[in-house]
Amino acid sequence: DTHFRDDIAAILRLKKERNAVILAHNYQTPEIFHCISDIQGDSLALARKAQGLEADVILMAGVHFMAETVKLLNPDKTVLISDPKAGCSLAESITAENVRALKAQHPGVPVVTYVNSSAEVKAETDICCTSGNAKRVMKHAAEQAGTDSVIMIPDEFLAANISKETGIKAITWPGHCEVHEQFTPRQIKQYRVMHPGVVVVAHPECPPPVIEAADFSGSTADMINFIAQEKPEKALLVTECSMSDNLAQLNPGTEFVRPCNLCPHMKRITLKGIRHALETMQTPVTIPPHLAEKARASVERMLAV
Ligand code: 13P
Ligand code: SF4
Hints:
The structure is a single chain. This protein has a four-stranded parallel sheet with strand order 2-1-3-4, with helices on both faces. Helix 1 runs parallel beside helix 14 (271-280) and helix 8 (134-145) packs across helix 9 (156-166). The chain contains 15 helices and twelve strands. The protein is an alpha/beta fold and 305 residues long. Bound molecules: 1,3-dihydroxyacetonephosphate and iron/sulfur cluster. Residues 63, 88-90, 116, 177-179, 205, 240, 263, 265-266 line the site of iron/sulfur cluster.
């Protein structure tokens, strides 16, 4: 696309000048995902791959909690986010004070916190999880604590979906992803009528009845791998819209039917914004040291499982 050309060329030049790498979440638009990023992935892969990078500067093309996680794991590096207002409805839904109250109500029950959360919430947490490892982490946390339940926050739907798979009871918090909570099982039924044989793949942030109506559920990386392996003629990705755009380029044999929903926070990240961030070195992510140590420990415990 010609109107992207100048910005792409400038970003590629700036990456060399700054010794910078760009990490891109799977929900980034195709020109960011395919043309300028060095590493792509779901939240888990981005956290893993952010460790031990040689670069001086890491730019996160994703939302704020993702940049914060990268900073936790790379305290001595400059971690940039081109728009610090790129938030997440899940991260906004809960405070450290809320977590302390939950712990007081349920003493001895381990706290498993979705990475879609702030550093202050992570600091109150026993172990973090992502949608890619939630099942494993939930089992591990209950086993370690010798309990048959865990406090799983802040995504009520993720907790319910994973609890069904593991049989471990989840004490939940009423946080929702504003993108995935909008999907309904009725929509899926209608699409199956309109597109016979369509393979339906849903993110576990969707309400449980949506997951029940789908053929497969998993993190954005699990969804990508499933499509690459199954090579369906038609697929419905019940998630953010850029997933279908990015996968259409990688899987020319599959037709991606909609609906999808846009994440307004992910869409704050643009090519122009990234160019400006690398030109001005704005905005660096900072985490108060008294929170960073504890928050890092809960992310590291997750990475060790
Ligand atoms: P993944 O870890 O599956 O990529 O999910 C992140 C996210 O924000 C989903 O809405
Ligand atoms: Fe948060 Fe949902 Fe957007 Fe992911 S898609 S960043 S969970 S609001």
